[in-house]
């Protein structure tokens, strides 16, 4: 992904600061502008008197320096990575924690039991993130086709679809390994899953790059960033693993780093190290989710950051470059990412409200029929889908994947709808298919259930 061109900020050295020059500015300027923006020199220099820009910059940098927190992570030039938390970022963090500490049902504004909402939504939203992450890296498959592939559990037809399937499996693996410590092997596992069956940049799945011919170009096709030498990758990533596994809870006197901040730093560092020929972005975002789930931020399973990064690739690229071109100040990247996370939660809320409203429409229709008490949450949602798409074919694997239930449970749900004459059962060779009839709505409103007492029993979602 090409990055915009950025001018390197004037280097700040606290040992050489001239207080006679900057003193008059210390009371006029803060670490952010009046709107809370943490400006890089590239933008800052145009917002102050040009003749005084450098002195004002040093005044701002001094105030930032006084709030900086150093990390046990070094740049390729042996400089320490640092960050600070402006009031604007602190406010966003508070809102994120407040949202992430709630439940799916509370965010949706739904009265449905949270466990049922989770079954209804979790797999669908993981699919959304898998698709967006692949599209961010250049996959051209449409969202509709990609989602149908994942729902039907069919084999990918090309490399773009393969990338989407890999991302889906990658997010599942991140969730499965959430309780494991971060190791080089786990990072390699993430990468192997992300790139299996792809050929971009001659990538070798699950293997670090073995050359230094990898770089990030800017929009003018000039080298914007050259990652550390491939020979340093094992040592540098081992240090990153140590940072990830270290206790930063603030308990017993240890240093406190906010979990969201720490996850964002892990995301950044994979991009900075660029340890693979391809798939660095997908691996970095998976690591972000892995750490959020490790810290029990369960709602991050439902949040898609890749969609918003895809919508703002310039901002994403600048957030990396601003850090790299201002003495490893991670605040730029952190500020951008917390804003992305907040927007992602807002989109999640809109999505959940929409899905909840759709479901309530089916419930309202069913309330006037004798089917209402016979159908469970998932079956009602299947009826909604069938009514919306007459003739749609459902499979056991699709329902199992979409609602995160076992295949036996999925089969029971579908057979139950067939027993009630709401769906039709047919075969394709040895494979059972379930069809929503064109007159499904009429069946709901005119027919009575034909279920025989005790013929079947619905399993809980």
UniProtKB/TrEMBL annotation:
SUPFAM superfamilies the record matches: Fic-like
Active site (record annotation): 274
InterPro entries: Fido, Fido-like_dom_sf, Fido_containing
Domain of life: Bacteria
Pfam families: Fic
Binding site for ATP: 278-285
GO molecular function, one term: ATP binding
Signal peptide feature range: none
Keyword terms: ATP-binding, Nucleotide-binding
Annotated Fido domain residues: 182-339
Record protein name field: Cell filamentation protein Fic
């Amino acid at each position: 992904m090409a990055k915009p061109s950025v001018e390197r900020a004037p280097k700040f050295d606290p040992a050489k600061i001239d207080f006679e020059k900057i003193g008059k500015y210390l009371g006029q300027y803060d670490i952010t502008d009046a709107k809370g923006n943490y400006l890089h020199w590239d933008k800052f220099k145009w917002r102050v008197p040009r003749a005084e820009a450098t002195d004002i910059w040093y005044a701002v940098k001094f105030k930032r320096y006084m709030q900086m927190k150093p990390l046990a992570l070094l740049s390729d030039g042996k400089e320490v990575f640092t960050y600070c938390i402006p009031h604007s970022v602190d406010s966003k963090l508070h809102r994120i924690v407040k949202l992430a500490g709630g439940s799916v049902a509370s965010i949706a504004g739904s009265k449905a039991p949270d466990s049922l909402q989770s079954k209804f939504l979790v797999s669908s939203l993981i699919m959304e993130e898998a698709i967006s992450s692949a599209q961010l890296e250049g996959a051209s498959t449409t969202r509709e086709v990609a989602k149908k592939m994942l729902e039907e559990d069919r084999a990918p037809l090309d490399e773009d679809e393969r990338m989407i399937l890999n991302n889906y499996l990658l997010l599942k693996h991140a969730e499965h390994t959430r309780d494991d410590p971060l190791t080089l092997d786990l990072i390699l596992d993430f990468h192997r899953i992300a790139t299996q069956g792809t050929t971009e940049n001659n990538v070798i799945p699950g293997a670090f790059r073995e050359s230094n011919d990898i770089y990030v170009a800017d929009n003018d096709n000039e080298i914007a960033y050259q990652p550390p030498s491939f020979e340093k990758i094992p040592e540098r990533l081992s240090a990153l693993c140590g940072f990830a596994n270290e206790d930063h809870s603030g308990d017993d006197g240890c240093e406190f780093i906010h979990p969201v901040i720490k996850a964002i730093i892990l995301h950044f560092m994979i991009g900075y190290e660029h340890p693979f020929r391809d798939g660095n972005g997908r691996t970095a975002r998976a690591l972000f989710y892995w750490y959020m789930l490790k810290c029990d931020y369960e709602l991050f399973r439902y949040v898609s950051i890749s969609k918003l990064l895809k919508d703002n690739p310039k901002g994403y690229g600048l957030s990396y470059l601003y850090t790299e071109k201002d003495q490893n100040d991670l605040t730029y990247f952190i500020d951008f990412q917390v804003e992305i996370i907040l927007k992602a939660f807002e989109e999640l809320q809109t999505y959940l409200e929409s899905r909840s409203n759709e479901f309530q429409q089916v419930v309202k229709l069913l309330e006037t029929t004798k089917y209402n008490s016979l159908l469970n949450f998932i079956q009602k949602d299947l009826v909604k889908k069938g009514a919306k798409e007459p003739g749609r074919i459902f499979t056991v694997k699709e329902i199992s994947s979409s609602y995160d239930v076992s295949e036996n449970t999925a089969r029971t749900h579908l057979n139950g709808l067939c027993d009630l004459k709401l769906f039709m059962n047919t075969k394709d060779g040895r494979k059972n298919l379930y069809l929503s009839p064109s007159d499904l709505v009429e069946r709901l409103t005119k027919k009575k259930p034909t279920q025989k007492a005790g013929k079947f029993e619905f399993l809980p979602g």
